[in-house]
Amino acid sequence: MKLNQICQKWPLLFAMAIGVLALPAISQEIDATNTLTLDRAIQIALENNPEARASGNRVAAAGGRAYQAKKWTNPELQLSAEDWPVSKGRGFSDAKQTIGIAQTLPYPGKKSLDKQIGGAGVKLSEAELALRRTELVRDVKASFMKVLAYERLVGVSVELVRVAESSAATAQKRVDAGATAYQEQLRAEVQLEQTRTELTDFQRELAIARQIFITLLGTNMKDATLVGALAETPNPALMEEGTECLLARHPGAAVAQANLARAQLEHRRERLEPYPDVRVGVSGGRIGESGESIIQVGLSLPLPIIDRSKGKQQETWANVRVAEAELQVVQQQLLREWVSARNRYQTAIEQVSKYRERILPKTSEALRLVQTGFEQGKFSFIDLLDTQRTTSEARLAYQQKLLEMNIAQAELEALIHPQTSQSFNK
Q1: Entry pTM
Q2: Residue 15 contacts residue 159 (beta carbons within 8 Å)
Q3: Are 267 and 317 in contact (CB under 8 A)?
């Protein structure tokens, strides 16, 4: 599922009036410079997030190491003067003078494995970059939705404060007129203070959510207006996907596989280390006294008597076993995360549906009946306050359940469809 399908509908905006008002969907493409859609936010994060940029540079660094690994060492220029007489009247011209070149020839198979190890390092860095991008897309989506949700919660809370202020004012007038007891005024004022406290809490959470969101973007867009909406309907495809696609496509598994492949190559390479590289050289010159031309050929190689690289071989073999275990750990962790996110998604779907289809209609109807009954003298002002409070809590809870569903959806998408993050790099 593409990321822009998450933001297709506006959620329901609740007011204290009867019923639930449906808001129309709005376009995700806004040309105003001070607005951000979800797609644009993801693009900005992928381009500017410091961790994403660092991962990209690690790929470049791995490419440099891979390029260097296939190169031989530089040849050596050798100049020598031997048998230099130091007796009176004789000097450098009477010495044996030679000039030549020496080159180290690696044991067959070493450079080939060095090249393969370099390529494996590039694949590992690319897999780590893909993993970081997938996690970044997931985090940006979740953070974007949190900002939208808390903006909605703040908006609803502002309306609730206005209603509570109106109720408190009405209660004071009724007390002043002697139409009711002072208890009603106190009850209304307590409810007003509660709604103001909730509004302050939501404003604080909104500020925190926006700060986290801006940090993820990696650029200063703190005044940008987010354009989008929480998804109110679930994505059935996320519930149908199995674990086989999870382990086959997730970058986390790819990182572990690439790490194992590199460890295996490094072990193979270390097994060749005891076989020595040969150093050959050829030089030419003359013998000083006679002026006769000469050619010298040299060959040297280390004797693997003291150091046969057994410790390094043991280390690389242990690294292979570590990489195998880490691959199993990653696979198990991905499965646990998938089960957890799937259960939370399913629970949130059920709760959102219950609030939308059962709880909200009932609270709205209860509020309508109590308001009508209060006007007719059938219910007390306390009954009206209690019903208003219950309705307010239900509306706020619905927004929070929507947020839980959207965050769980973002986590499932990152687990099952991680390749969606790559589309934002084009």
Answers
A1: 0.78
A2: yes
A3: yes
